[in-house]
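[SOLVED] Need 3D model of a two-part complex

Original post:
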Amino acid sequence: MRTKAHVPYLFLMPAIVLFSVFTVYPIVYSFLLSFQTGAGGNMKYAGLANYRRLLEDSIFWKSLSNTFIILAVQVPVMLFLALVLASMLHSLVRGRAFFRISFFMPAVTALVSYSIIFSLMLAGDGLVNQLLEAVGLKAVPWLSHPVWAKAAIILALTWRWTGYNMMIYLAGMQNIPDSLYEAASIDGAGKIRQFFTITIPQLRPIILLTAILSTIGTLQLFDEPYTLTRGGPSDATLTIGMYLYQTGFRYFDFGYASTLAYVIVVLIAVLSFVQFRITGGKD
Amino acid sequence: MSPKSAMYRLVSRLILVAGAFVSLFPFYWTAVAATNPSGKVFAKPPQLVPGSMFLENLFNLNASIGIFRVLFNSTFVTCVYTLFSLTVCTMAGYAFAKFRFPGRNALFSVFLVSLMVPYHATLIPLFKMMASWEWINTYLALIFPNVAYPFAIFLMRQNLLAMPDAVMEAARIDGVGEWRLFVSIVLPSMRPALAAAAIYLFVYQWNNFLWPLVATSTKEMYTLPVALSSLIGLSRIDYGQVMTGVTIATGPIVAFFLILQRQFISGILGGAIKE
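Solution:
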């Protein structure tokens, strides 16, 4: 029995119309805007002027290096922590449900909400510093020192996303045959050796997936620095996403803001490709 | 058991317990701060016992940002968006999964590729467009932009692929129309996938910040994240109010999560996990 040829198009129609108007058109328009200068509705074609401006814009380079520092520290630390927690949880017999729920709970909070919570806990006389002083350490200027402010964002990000990634790894671990671990135990390999020689290699495709997802997320980082540090102190936590927002909606420089958006597009494409080649290319 | 593996057991349990504490403590602390006066947030020693100030904080919060209006905005926008998007994305996923037609693969690739394009690339043109339509500070601006959500389309397509064609063929032979077939035969069999996608879309929209920040400029139209962020920007911050707001924004989602754990986890992870 044949269905009429137009049926699938009718089912697709709403998605295609909405997607064209609210996604495809803006993506193309934003590309065109990246070659224009001017303010508000008064835009003129200016060739590569915005792209040349990038090269000399020290704030842009600063935001780029901030984003990459956060990316380079946070993503590996978080993914490793998630792997360790997942493998500990995997070998747990009782109480697994409790830990799964606990670790996943941060992943349901709004980025703004948890950033606010962290900004209060990490404040000068906040809870974390009180704890540090109680155990005989010195208080840390979390939000007012260029290096510590980055650390504050990394801490917050790690709290929010570790459980999320752990859950993905836990699912992957169910597909690793127990016989691999049993054989390794008989050969005398301890839990730590098994983690590095069985768990990590077996999960490689999933680790790649999480690395790409986290990279894409971190390159777009906005809510946390906006709420936690407002990009400060002295632009030390200004990310590309925040710089784009400031350029577009504080200075209404739509052309240059679009150029910044395309920098993020290109970075995501390139980094995803590189990670894919390095980690997944061998199979 | 060898002493080495007993040691591993002990250390791993300690790490898990410490991790769970770190994960959960901020929730408790937030709830405590929401029930205490502003100054108690930085009290020495830390205030760890709930107080009785919640209602007062709530009324103060309503006086400063109109929390009830904001709560209504977030709830309304999120519910309408979730229903709307779920309908549109399920229909599209159904077309991609269950029909062969010219242009299918090309169209599907366009949706897939757009998953890699950051939201920032649409931000400026969306704003210009909505400004010229005079949609800024309206529910339309908050609801429409991501209704056709490529990830949800992908999710529904993957799940629909697994549905046997025989059921549909039998219905067609019985003369059931295409729309009725979709509504009364396909949809009911997709409940778990629909629940996962709905949770994904709901949480995305409830927590969404950057676009509502751009698309609203009056307190009456703020969503919860935008309103909370505006409180933090003030020169004198009332922390009791702020934490009450955070509790209101977080509480419902956490409650849903605790009730529907399985669906929530599979929803937020985008159906990557099936149990």
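Edit: The radius of gyration of chain B is 23 Å.
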